[in-house]
């Protein structure tokens, strides 16, 4: 049985409790009890270090433990600074320090659950009239963020304190696949056309574009097994809707998309660029691009300066290949002679703008929105 752990907001909250305890008593807490709110339970979070940093401030350090989850934040340190505060406004002011990402408006990416968690756990420790300033710092956040798709969802310069629960589920384990299968089975009973989204941000963007949430299925990195499952359940059409840096892996035959297992993105873009006749020097630039987003920006740059249409040509070729390889995957893994489920794809960029729709993706989007 896989071990679940806790999300980043829980460790930030544990550190805040330990820092406040130091301010109050000048004593070190080895563990801090955190009320998770969701679920309704109290857990003990180990405190790695805590110290006063001024007469009115203290800093505590915890370390992320998401359990048996292939999570790039595993073991990353979380620093939480707590200071007495005499300004106007709220009793607890929460800020993002180094390594906490910002949204497009410049606001720290500390979302609803994290805010609620910190406020509920700290308010009960304050006396009437006391106010504190809480600053969450992720020393490795900026570098870790370069390995995520955060920019695709409007978060830059670091990681977000995201989530709706304190429990970090091991999304890449067989047990979690069963949870996704249960959701798929329920929705396949209602709809013949479904939308596969890899993560929460894709689900949110799909809603904003007008897709019925009841048709959307979260896949995490388990796209391949869930495609086959959907086919066996009689689903006739599937729209693959996702960030290009993840979804394009399917064009290379990679149907478990976790970065620990396989990548191949630059090779996929290079192959399609070469087939379509892009110049050698530009293929070299794409091949040495650190991220798929950088390769996309170079193609757009070529279109801007030369009046070409490389972005649409290359990404349409990739999208069509995603559709074809998805249907081939279903056919090769289902051992059924019945008609293969139809797949279409829609890829979007870091600014939440659709880059391209495959031919089938266009048809499905018109049907769904």
TrEMBL record:
Pathway: Cofactor biosynthesis; adenosylcobalamin biosynthesis; cob(II)yrinate a,c-diamide from sirohydrochlorin (anaerobic route): step 6/10. Keywords: Cobalamin biosynthesis, Methyltransferase, S-adenosyl-L-methionine, Transferase. It catalyses: Co-precorrin-5B + S-adenosyl-L-methionine = Co-precorrin-6A + S-adenosyl-L-homocysteine. Its EC number is 2.1.1.195. It is an enzyme of class 2 (transferase). Transmembrane segments: none annotated. The keyword Glycoprotein does not apply. One of its GO terms (biological process) is anaerobic cobalamin biosynthetic process. It holds the Pfam family CbiD. GO terms for molecular function: methyltransferase activity. Belongs to the CbiD family. This is Cobalt-precorrin-5B C(1)-methyltransferase. It comes from Cylindrospermopsis curvispora GIHE-G1.
């Amino acid at each position: 049985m896989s071990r679940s752990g806790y999300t980043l907001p829980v460790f930030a909250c544990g550190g805040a409790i330990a820092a406040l305890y130091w301010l109050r008593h000048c004593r070190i807490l080895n563990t801090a009890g955190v009320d998770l709110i969701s679920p309704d339970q109290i857990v003990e979070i180990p405190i790695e270090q805590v110290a006063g940093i001024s007469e009115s401030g203290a800093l505590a350090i915890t370390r992320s433990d998401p359990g048996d989850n292939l999570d790039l934040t595993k073991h990353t340190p979380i620093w939480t600074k707590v200071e007495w505060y005499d300004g106007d406004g709220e009793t607890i002011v929460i800020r993002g320090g180094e390594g906490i990402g910002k949204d497009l408006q410049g606001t720290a990416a500390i979302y609803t659950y994290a805010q609620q968690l910190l406020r509920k756990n700290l308010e009960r420790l304050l006396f009437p009239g006391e106010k504190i300033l809480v600053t969450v710092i992720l020393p490795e956040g900026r570098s870790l963020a370069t390995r995520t798709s955060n920019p695709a969802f409007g978060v830059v310069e670091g990681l977000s304190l995201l989530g709706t629960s304190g429990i970090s589920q091991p999304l890449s384990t067989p047990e979690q696949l069963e949870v996704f299968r249960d959701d798929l089975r329920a929705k396949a009973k209602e709809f013949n056309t479904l939308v596969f989204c890899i993560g929460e941000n894709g689900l949110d963007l799909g809603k904003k574009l007008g897709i019925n949430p009841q048709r959307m299925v979260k896949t995490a990195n388990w796209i391949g097994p869930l495609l086959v499952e959907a086919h066996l359940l009689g689903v006739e059409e599937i729209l693959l809707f996702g960030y290009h840096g993840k979804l394009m892996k399917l064009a290379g035959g990679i149907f478990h998309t976790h970065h620990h297992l396989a990548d191949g993105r630059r090779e996929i873009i290079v192959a399609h660029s070469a087939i379509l006749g892009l110049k050698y020097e530009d293929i070299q630039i794409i091949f040495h691009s650190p991220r798929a987003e950088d390769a996309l920006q170079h193609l757009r740059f070529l279109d801007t300066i030369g009046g070409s249409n490389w972005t649409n040509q290359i990404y349409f070729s990739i999208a069509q290949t995603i559709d074809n390889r998805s249907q081939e995957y279903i056919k090769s893994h289902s051992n059924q002679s019945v008609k293969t489920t139809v797949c279409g794809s829609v890829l979007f960029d870091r600014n939440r703008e659709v880059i391209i729709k495959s031919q089938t993706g266009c048809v499905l989007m018109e049907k769904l929105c």
